[in-house]
């Protein structure tokens, strides 16, 4: 009895460590400070047209057909200095996650992280 009781916590710790390792593997994207863009621009193009173009425009210049309804308007996503990590975070978590307005919706319930990577890869592939 006593022996068993002293073994249990070790099992629990192992289980916890295994769970943590699995979680860490599932979210490699923001591990540490380095964001690594891993997307397919071809897949991203269609997703962008479906989910983003109405506000941000066909070529991501911030001139979609709904753009006039927003003040400030949807961002030009090709502007200099807008890096892939910020594009990813604002898209996944919404404008407020990067200090902007909630008029930029969060897409984490609509798009999985791979799809967001794909969209960002497409935006990054545009000629500026
Ligand atoms: C309903 C309109 C709307 C849709 C749809 C929309 N956005 Fe936005 N987005 C905005 C607005 C408005 C802003 C600017 C918010 C502000 O200025 O505070 C913005 C800002 C952003 C920013 C912040 C850029 C910066 O200047 O730092 C990113 C990144 C972004 N959008 C990406 C996307 C992507 C990618 C999609 C599609 C998955 C998308 N948005 C869909 C309206 C929209």
What is this entry, summarized?
With about 130 residues, the protein is mostly helical. The protein has helices at about 1-25, 40-50, 55, 85-95, 115-125. The protein is elongated, with a radius of gyration of 20 Å.
Structure commentary:
By secondary structure, this protein is mostly helical. It has one domain (29-125): Cytochrome c-like domain (Cytochrome Bc1 Complex, Chain D, domain 2). Helices cover 49% and strands 0% of the residues. It contains 5 helices and no strands. It has helices at residues 2-26, 41-51, 53-56, 84-93, 113-125. The model has no long low-confidence stretch (mean pLDDT 86). The structure holds heme C.
Search tags:
128 residues, mainly alpha, Cytochrome Bc1 Complex, Chain D, domain 2, 49% helix, 0% strand, binds heme C
SSE order and pairing:
Blueprint: H1 2-26, H2 41-51, H3 53-56, H4 84-93, H5 113-125
Helix pairs in contact: 2-5, 4-5
The structure holds heme C (HEC).
End-to-end separation in angstroms reads 71 Å
The helix-strand sequence is HHHHH
Number of DSSP helices?
A: 5
Please count the beta strands (DSSP E, at least 2 residues each).
Answer: 0
CATH architectural group: Orthogonal Bundle
Query: How many whole angstroms does the radius of gyration measure?
Result: 20 Å
Binned, the helix content reads 40-55%
Q: Could you say what the CATH topology is called?
A: Cytochrome Bc1 Complex, Chain D, domain 2
Largest sheet: none
Can you give the mean pLDDT? 86
What is the CATH superfamily? Cytochrome c-like domain
Bulk shape: elongated
CATH class, anyone?
Mainly Alpha
Low-confidence stretches: none
Domain count, please report it: 1
Strand content: under 5%
Structural class: mainly alpha
Ligands bound, unique: heme C
């Amino acid at each position: 009895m006593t022996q068993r009781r002293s073994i249990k916590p070790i099992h629990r710790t192992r289980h916890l460590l295994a769970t943590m390792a699995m979680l860490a593997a599932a979210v490699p994207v923001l591990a540490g400070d380095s964001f690594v863009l891993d997307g397919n621009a071809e897949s991203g193009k269609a997703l962008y047209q479906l989910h983003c173009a109405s506000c941000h425009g066909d070529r991501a210049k911030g001139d979609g057909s709904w753009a006039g309804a927003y003040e400030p308007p949807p961002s030009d996503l090709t502007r200099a200095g807008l890096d892939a990590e910020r594009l990813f975070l604002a898209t996944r978590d919404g404008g407020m996650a990067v200090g902007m307005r909630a008029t930029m919706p969060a897409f984490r319930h609509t798009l999985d992280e791979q799809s967001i990577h794909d969209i960002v890869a497409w935006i990054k592939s545009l000629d500026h």
